[in-house]
Amino acid sequence: MRLTHHSRLAQDCRGMTLIEVLIAAVVIAIGLLGVAALQVTALQGSSNADYRSRATELAASLSDRMRANLEGVEDNAYISNVDADCDNPPAPICSVTPNATTTTGVAECTTDEIAVFDLWEVRCRNGVQNTLPGGQLVVDCIDNDGGDADPCSTMSPMTATITWQVQSDSAVLETQTVVSTIVPGAP
């Protein structure tokens, strides 16, 4: 019996088998998992960049505050490796406008009190401890005159080291660091 043109066409166009459909589904699933993994990596990279940007801004803010209070720098009032108690702001409040609408509660402060307030502001009020996961701030001096009794001689560079924790690709916490060297000048 001879096949007609119509029956040969029917044999050639049978459609996909179940195995072909399953293989296509697996290939698509693997592709979607790859896209999802890329999205997670992109989000982690974006948040890590945001944290680094915040840390850099906070280090610059502390640098500006130190340059505005050179006598406090000279008194070594900014050298600190102890985290502040963010629940209890220092007394007195050494800010021109503590709540941005009034000067009520503003006190006349010594240069050392200004330094304590500055460190609290950079650490606590929208600062290192509140905006960076596991954030810490250490201010240290690289004394350029080790022969005197002063732990941080005039014109010695100071470092502000800000550290925080980020999650790596392997779900392990890694410490990130921004170190800013500050040479505040002489009063």
Task: Trace the largest sheet across and list its strands.
Answer: 1-2-3
> What is the total tally of β strands?
3
**Largest sheet geometry:** 3 strands, antiparallel
Strand content: 5-15%
Distance between the termini: 110 Å
Order of helices and strands: HHHHHEEE
Structural class: alpha+beta
Helix proportion: 40-55%
Mean pLDDT: 82
Reconstruct the topology from this structure.
Layout: H1 5-12, H2 18-68, H3 70-74, H4 111-123, H5 128-131, E1 136-141, E2 158-167, E3 173-182
Antiparallel strand pairs: 1-2, 2-3
Helix pairs in contact: 2-4
Give a summary of the structure in a few sentences:
Helices cover 43% and strands 14% of the residues. It is an alpha+beta fold and 187 residues long.
Mind explaining what this structure looks like?
- There is one protein chain.
- With 187 residues, the protein is an alpha+beta fold.
- It has 5 helices and 3 strands.
- The protein has helices at 5-12, 18-68, 70-74, 111-123, 128-131, and strands at 136-141, 158-167, 173-182.
- Helix 2 runs antiparallel to helix 4 (111-123).
- It starts with a helix and ends in a 5-residue tail after the last strand.
- The relative contact order is 0.15.
Sum up the structure in keywords:
3 strands, alpha+beta, single chain, 43% helix, 14% strand, 187 residues, elongated, 3-stranded antiparallel β-sheet
